[in-house]
Model the fold of this input.
Amino acid sequence: MLKEAMKQGYLKALFLFPHNNIFEFHHVSDCPPVDLSPRKIKTEAFYRFIESHGPYIPAGDIVEKKELDRTGAITFDDGLEDVYRIAYPFLGEKKIPFTIFVLSEKLDRPGYMTKAQLLEMAADPLVTIGSHGTDHTKLGEADEKKQRVEIIDSKKQIEDITGRECAYFAYPFGSYNEITLRLAHEGGYVNAFAVKGRPLTRGNHKDPYTVPRLSIEDNTLRYYNPA
Ligand SMILES: [Zn+2]
Done:
C-alpha cells in the first residue's frame, strides 16, 4: 500500500522535470458499436485532450528527440474501427501525426479496422502503422514459440498488407519479458513501446524496446490535465 503510494508520488514528480509524452489511446467513441476494450475516451474529451497538449511528432521521432519540451506523440493500440472513423478525420484535418498498433489477425473483424482502411491510412504520410502482435497475447507469459508468432510473424503480415516496413511494436497489456526484448531486437524493430504511466525524461528511455507511454482514457484524464 505504502509502496504503491510512493510509486504514484514518484510518477507524478516526474512530470515536474523536463519531459516529452507518448500518449496511448484505445477506443475513441461515445458508444462503440462493438466494445472490444474497456479502455476508451469520449469523443469530445479526446478532442479537448489533443488540443490542450502537443505539439506532436511521430512516436519514432520522439524517442530520438533530445530536447525535453513537452512535445507529444499519439499512439492507438488494437486497431479499433472508431480510430479510423472518429480520430483519423480529426487528426488528419489538424495535420497531426500518429501511430496505430494493429493486431494482424483481428483486421476485418467486427469492431476492428478493415484491411482496406489500414491500407488507406498507411498511404497517408501522417500515419505510421506498427504491430501489436496477432491476437493480443500477454507476451510476458507466453513461451518463445508463441512470442515469435506475435512479434516476428505479425510484422511480416502487416508489411504484406501495407507494403511498407513495420518498424514499431507495442506490447499488449504492456507485458514483456527477456525473450520479448530479444525477439523485438532480432525481428528488426526500431522501437517497442510499453505502458509505464510515465513521461520520457532525461534518464528513463535509454532502452529502445521498453519505451514508456501514458494510457489516456476517461478515468485517467485528470492526471494529465493539471488544472
Ligand atoms: Zn492492446
About this structure: The beta strands are 21-25, 27-28, 40-41, 72-78, 98-102, 127-131, 168-170, 191-193, 214-215. The mean pLDDT is 91. The chain has one domain: 17-224. Residues 122 and 217 are 25 Å apart (CA to CA).
